[in-house]
Structures are given as C-alpha cells and as structure tokens.
Amino acid sequence: MTPDLLDEGARRVSAFAQKHQAGRTESGGREAGFGRLSMGQEVDTTHGRILYLEDVSVSFDGFKAINRLSLDIAPGELRCIIGPNGAGKTTMMDIITGKTRPDSGTVFFGSTIDLLRYTEPQIAQMGIGRKFQKPTVFEQLTVFENLELALKTDKGVRSSMFFRLDSGHSDRLAEVLETIQLSDGMTRLAGNLSHGQKQWLEIGMLLMQDPKLLLLDEPVAGMTDEETARTAELFLTLKGRHSLMVVEHDMSFIRAISEIVTVLSEGSVLAQGTLDQVQNDERVIEVYLGR
Ligand SMILES: Nc1ncnc2c1ncn2[C@@H]1O[C@H](COP(=O)(O)OP(=O)(O)OP(=O)(O)O)[C@@H](O)[C@H]1O
Q1: Which of 56, 57, 64, 91 gets mutated to test ligand 1 (max ligand atoms within 8 A of its CB)?
Q2: How far is the CA of 124 from the centre of ligand 1 (A)?
Q3: Which domain holds residue 104?
Q4: Is the ipTM reported for this complex over the cut 0.85?
Q5: What is the per-residue pLDDT across 58-71, written as a single tens digit (0 to 9) for each?
Q6: Would residue 160 count as lying in a domain?
Q7: Number of domain units in the chain
Q8: Which stretches of the chain are assigned E, i.e. beta strand?
Q9: Whose CA is nearest to atom 26 of ligand 1?
Q10: Is position 84 within any domain?
Q11: Which of 10, 36, 150, 240 has the largest CB neighbor count within 10 A?
C-alpha cells in the first residue's frame, strides 16, 4: 500500500474516532438496528416467515443432495441447523443464496420474493448475507478499512480508500464496531487479528450491508472456548434485529444460542425442536451414531 493511501486512511480513522468517542452508548447504539433493503423490494413478513422453502430437491449426478426439503424461519429468529456430514446443510445454503439452482421446489424470501428468479449477487443485495466457514477479510487493511470497504463492494479498493463516509454510514460503522467488540482494535491490521476476531470482523462486514437474513456456516470452527462464548453472546445480540440461520457441529455452542434446532439428514428435515428434544429423538441418535 502506498504512503498516501496510508496517510489518507489514518486521517479518516482519526476523524471517525473523534466523532464517535463521545457517542458510545452502553448498548453501542445497537438500538438503532439494521434493515435497509435494496433492489426496490420490501420483504413482506406479514405471514410470519422471512424464509420459506417447500419441497426443494436437487441432485448431483443422480445423487439427491436435497430431497423434498421444507422449512421456514420467522423474522428475527435464530435457527440452528445440525446434521451429520453430507446431510445437505451447505447445499441448502447454496440454494437460498442462488449459488445452486434446485431441480424443483419453492424458495421465498418473505411471502412475495421468489428467490429462484434472482442471481447470487442480486440475492446478496436484497439483504441475505452469507458467512462461509473460513474468514475472508482483507488482511492488509485495518479493521476500520475492512468495514468501510464492505459499504462499497461495487467499487475497487483504491477508490474505496478515498470514499467518504456520510454520517449515516459513519454511525453504522461505529455501531458495528461496538457490536463485534473491535472498537478498540479498529486501527489494527486484519491480518494481525486472532482467528475469532477475523470471524467477528467478517460478520461485521456483513452487518455493514444491512442484512435481513444472515446465513452462517460453522462460525465457531477453530475458535477457542472463550471466542466461542463471545460469539454466542454476539449472535444473541443479533437475534431479533436480524434473522439468522446457523449451521454448526459444536453442540455446546448450539446449546448456548438455540431455541429451535432443525436436524437435516439425507437432504430432508429429520427432526425439529429444542436441542434436548432432538438429542433425545431416536431417529437423530441413529443418524449420528450410524456414522
Ligand atoms: N457440486 C456437487 N457435486 C456433487 N456432489 C455434491 C456437490 N455439492 C454437494 N454434493 C454432495 O451432496 C451431499 C451434501 O453435501 P453438503 O456439503 O451440502 O453437506 P453438509 O451437510 O454441508 O456436510 P458437512 O457437514 O460435511 O459440511 C454430499 O454427499 C456431497 O458430497
């Protein structure tokens, strides 16, 4: 990175810090919430569902990875998805985000947006954010710059460096920094963060884009116990303001955050209920022990 870019970055961070130092609230301003949608479409959740899949199937070379899958998620819900390896969890997220087209079935965002009519970037713009297992932050940029860049994903890195935050963006950035507990580390290079902090930063980058629905694939894999506990706290603060779908194998984490747990097996819903209910379900015990 050139010195002029570094100077420019430092100047912006300093101006930002001065503006927001006094403005920190106990809740980090979280009461303001998120929720903007683009694409000129509002998500209609009046029927009590933000995501709705019905009878969805997809095959790869004759193998049914998703088999007549039906499930729905309520606005503000934090839904945990578990299931043995190969159950179809990632493929289900690929279908929701437009990465994979199902052979049949229905996938709706709210009650009016047919997601199967949109491309992957359009679905992201509509407010469905996805976090893959591995963190993909820009290691050579600071925490602040990563978050700032997330506001302007349509621009190149250099033009984004000179992008000026308006006060709405600036407030959101401060709010997100508080939410992901990186306010004090905003000038650190992302490459120097711990694994857990990188994961939180990437979640923060998604939050900058005002997602209605967040899909998170194995968010605590590789985290320390302390990082896992902090991630549970983070998800509980996001619940209500966003809808979350969390795929995870770590049962202690699921226990800390879950209300309803959906168990996938062989591409379908095998069981659904509280973690205790599904863990005591004979069919669930069988698919886990059978492997
Ligand atoms: N593009 C593809 N081509 C062929 N087979 C695929 C493809 N994507 C997924 N599959 C198969 O579909 C099945 C479901 O895979 P998927 O990755 O969705 O499972 P998962 O529940 O996410 O597993 P894990 O917990 O191991 O991540 C697996 O048998 C996988 O091998």
Answers
A1: 91
A2: 22
A3: 34-146+187-289
A4: yes
A5: 999 999 999 999 99
A6: no
A7: 1
A8: 51-60, 63-73, 78-82, 104-109, 113-114, 128-131, 213-217, 243-247, 261-265, 268-273
A9: 85
A10: yes
A11: 150
